[in-house]
Amino acid sequence: MEENYMSFESENKNVEKIVVSNKTYYLVGTSHISENSVKLVKEVIERVQPDTVSIELDKKRYEKYTNSNQWGNTDIIKIIKEKKLVVLISNIVYSAYQKKLANTKGTTQAGELIQAIKSAKEIGANIQLIDRDIQVTFKRMWRHLSFLEKPKLFMTFFTEFDDIEQDKLEEYLESDSFDKVFISLSKKYPSLYQDMITDRDKYMSTKLKNNSSQVNVVVVGKAHMKGIKEKLEKRTEFSLDNLNEIPPKKLSTKLLEFSLPAIIIILLVLSLVSGFEVGVSQLLKWLVWNGGLAALFTCFALANPLTILTSFIMAPVGALSPVLSVGMFSALMEASIKKPTVNDFMNAQDDISSIKSIYKNRLLKVGLIFVLASAGGAIGNIIGGIELFKNLI
C-alpha cells in the first residue's frame, strides 16, 4: 500500500496521504466535471483497497445518484408548504451550472462521485457520506446573503467560465489558476465562501474523525482538500449540531417583512378614518393594484386560469402578512392542478437553461409562477401604497 501511495504522490498532486491517530487518510481532490478525476478515483480505490470510501455527498444526493426514482417522486406540494421551494430551485440552478461545465467537455456531472460509489461496492468497502445536507447548506447561504447579492450570485453561476475556451477548460480546472476562483469568491461573497467551503470543510473533517476505519479514501472537490487536511492534522473538533443550525433571519430582513405590511395597514386605516366612502374607494384601488399586478405577472407564466385567480385573491393576504407570500399560494394551486411528473424532475437541470423549456417543464413552471406572482404582488403593493399615501396628503 505504501509503495502504491508513493507512486500516487509522484504522479498526481491531487492525492495526499495523512496519518492521524493511527488512521490513514488518502485525500483525493477532484473536479466534478473532469474525466481525469473519474479515472483517478477508480485507480486510487483499486490500488489502496481501503476499509471505507468517504464521499462528498449527503443522503439526498446519494439517493439521487443511486436511485433516480427517489428524486423523480419528490412531493412538490410538501416542498412548497415547508417553504423549501426557493432552496429546491437554488439547488437545480447550482446543479445546472455544474452540468453546463460538464457538457463543455462531454463528461458526466459528478462522475467521480458516482465512480467512488461503484468502486467502493466492487471492493466491498464501506461507504461513508460525509457532506452536510444540501438543503441546510443552501438555507444557511441564503440567510447570510444580502438582498443585492442573491440575484448577482445567480448571474455569476452562468458567466464565471464563459470567457474560457472550451478546449482549455479542463486544463484550467486542473491548474493552480482554479484556486483563484475561490479566492475571488471569498472576496466577492465572504458569507457564501464560509457556508459553501469553510463550514463544509469543518463538517466533513469531523465526520472523518468520527469514523473508526483504519484506512480511508476520501473523495472530495479540490476546493475542500486544503481545509480538510489542515483540520485533520490539527485534530480540531467541531460541533455538527452547530454546523447544521439554520441562522435566524437578519434583523433588517425581519424589519422589512413586518414594516411594509404595517405601513399598508396604517395607510388603509387612515384612509377609512378620513371618510368611509373615500376609505373604501382607496381600499378597492389598493386591492386592484395589488391583486391585479399579481394576476398579470402570473399570466406571464402562462399559468392555469385558477392559478391566476388565486394570485388575484391571495395577493392582499400575502401583502399584509410578514410570513406568507402570494407566490406560495399560486405555486400550490398550479402544482395541484398540473402536478410535476417524474420526467419534469429528471430534466429540470437541462430545461432551466432555456426559457421555452422552463415553460414546458411543470416543476420549473411552478417555480416561475412563485417568482412572478410574488414580484407582481410586491410591485402592486408598492404602487397601491403610494396611491394611498398621495390621497392622504
Give the tally of structural domains. 2
**Which parts are unreliable, with pLDDT below 50 for 5 consecutive residues or more?**
163-169
Separation, N- and C-terminal Cα atoms: 83 Å
Report strand %: 5-15%
Largest sheet: 5 strands, mixed
Note the run of SSEs as H and E: HEEHEHHHHHEHHHHHEHHHHHHHHHH
Residues in helices, as a percent range: over 70%
Q: Given the helix and strand composition, which structural class is it? A: alpha/beta
Strand order of the largest sheet: 1-2-5-3-4
Instruction: Count the DSSP helices.
Output: 22
Kindly report the average pLDDT value.
85
User: Strand tally, please?
Assistant: 5
Shape: elongated
InterPro entries: TraB/PrgY/GumN_fam, TraB_bac, TraB_PrgY-like
Keywords: Membrane, Transmembrane, Transmembrane helix
Organism: Enterococcus faecalis TX0630
Pfam families: TraB_PrgY_gumN
